[in-house]
Design a protein that fits this description.
Number of helices of chain A: 9
CATH topology of one domain in chain A: Rossmann fold
Largest sheet of chain B: 2 strands, antiparallel
CATH superfamily of one domain in chain A: P-loop containing nucleotide triphosphate hydrolases
Number of helices of chain B: 11
Order of helices and strands of chain A: EHEEHEEHHHEHHEHEEH
Oligomer: heterodimer
Number of strands of chain A: 9
Shape of chain A: globular
Shape of chain B: globular
Largest interface: A-B, 53 and 48 residues
Distance between the termini of chain A: 49 Å
Structural class of chain A: alpha/beta
CATH architecture of one domain in chain A: 3-Layer(aba) Sandwich
Chain lengths: 272, 280
Amino acid sequence: MIQFRFSRSGESTLGEYDSVSPGSDAILEIEGVWRKYRRWERRPTSFKDAFVRLFQRNGLAYEDFWALKDVSFSLKRGEALGICGGNGSGKSTLLKVLAHILPLTYGRVTVRGKITTLLDLGTGFLPELTGRENIALNGAIMGLSNAEVASHMDSIIAFADLGSFINSPIKTYSAGMYMRLGFAIAIHVDADILLIDEILAVGDEEFHRKCIPELKRMQRNGTSMVIASHALPMLSELCDRVMWLNGGRVMMDGKPAEVLERYSPHLIPAND
Amino acid sequence: MGTPFEVGLETKKMQPVYQVVGDANWNSLNKIIALIRHLTWRSLASRYRGSALGFVWTLVNPIMLMFVYTFVFKNIFGQSAAGVPFQVYLMTGILAWNFFSTAAIQASVSLVSGASLVNKSTFPRIVLPVSAVLANAVNYLVALPLLFAFILISGVPLTGYVLLLPISFLLLTIMAIGLGAFLASLMPFFMDLQHLIEVFFTMWFFLTPIVYEIGLIKDPGWRAWYDLNPMVGIVQFIHTVFLGLPLNVSTLLTSVLGSVLMLVIGLLIFRRLAPHCTEV
């Protein structure tokens, strides 16, 4: 199998992880993935608009914008891959392509298991429904059968630590309760691969104290993860490996300490 | 999908392939059905939430229409309806049409209004239009006992055709799912489609024998074109089922063919386009 690896900085990104032979241990493999967006000067959003601008000079002008350029990696069972990079570097696009929320433009994605996304906490929660009703609805959206929801119900409620609020409409919940509930449902899906986008950056200390040990426990039990985050300490704590994306391209892929050390100088320092 | 092996600047660009080997997340029909049930229930609950009279409100619209159309078409234009009281004829058609058009219109916006879900999770997108249609199907079924009561009070006897009710219901449902899925897959790209659809359904309503009797179309040339509308056969068949009007086999066959075709086309186009709705 040819590895389409490329690194702009010229250094080899081949590390110990590339010894994984495809088809054996790798639960997720992506090869030469490209993702194109059309950047319209003004995208036509209606028939009328499209028709009018058909007759205008440059009315339908757009340029191609590559959000992912030739990204390849493979992920072992139980391995956690962190993704760092600035805004617009392609982190979220990569997660959406992995989840098949966005179609890929070129390349190959092979998944050998169940994927669950945690791209946002509480996607699809309905404020009028109670916590319990939202667990049932959200569980179904995440792909749990009714029997699975029923069997995990107590455990989800216990993890979210909602107490008597579980039977109240979730519009009465605090932000913390809301996040804990969203997280609790996602980790009960029994996925082989968990895709996490930034959600760990939004929570407070207490939320982290609850979630990080849980994620580590899941890793020990064989759940693979891809975690995109700006929070570098968290990446080094949670991940076995970190990939640095810049302008949609893999700059570096290796041990967290090494990658983050090279990446840190590229961060724009805060104004102080 | 373009040339399979374009040589780009850096490496070969491979044809896009996303494959799941082994146990995928949405592998069982049970899970998809469970999700459809949840979404259907959710849209019904939100419609009826906070008002015990919620169901009564869904009947207000057809009843008002019935009074207005009776006034215009019976009292002003002096129409009759194939030997059954005009109000009963109207109500039978209006309830079926309201189910069909509301279902298709709500299904058509389902991908757009569910964008937050679609952008963040991986469930099969088809559950959105299907559950929009099924929520309206439940509404229709709940209203049927009242329709039967109205028919019997008006002195129209039920016939053996009433046993074919499941078929008429099925035709309406698959037509609405097919059309709804088709429109839903275009909607994210052309938002003004919504306004076109409303105009289109109003025109379609008057091209279907709901507020008049089909026998009024005397010109056989016009009638041949008219009968190509698959809703003509469905509504005629519904008049047969509920009111015992004569069965018209040829328009019924057009409808069966039309709705199955609509379902197949709608699902195929949905499968082709829906994955791209996250790109806009």
